Amino acid sequence: MSIEYKINTPISTDQFIGVLKTSALAVRRPVDDRECMEGMIKNSNLIVSAWDDEKLIGIARSMTDFHYACYLSDLAVDKNYQNSSIGKQLQIITQEQLGSKCKLILIAAPSANSYYEHIGFTNNQRCWVLDHDSSIIS
User: What is the pTM (predicted TM-score) of this model?
Assistant: First the structure.
């Protein structure tokens, strides 16, 4: 297996949806809302992707300022390619794109907590979320 990793290579909405569906991430993403998915892929400023020939098999999609914080919003690897260190390599390449003081931040599915701890992340209990259908209380 010869996997090629690419940085900020254009990815179509269909390719993005496809890799989410072949990974475990589609159940937590709005894959049936094409407009949202298109906005997600087009407005990310750091995308590291893994390819098997012409097939997108993995993605690390982030938003970052490259100096202080990088939010890794999506890390997905096709189920047929999991347990091959592709996800880890996507994160390593993502981190290599960042400045020396930039933190890599993500929100993990509960089932992935042990994975992230195993590869060196620390758990931070200070994350807060305001859902799309909620408003700031005045």
Answer: 0.92
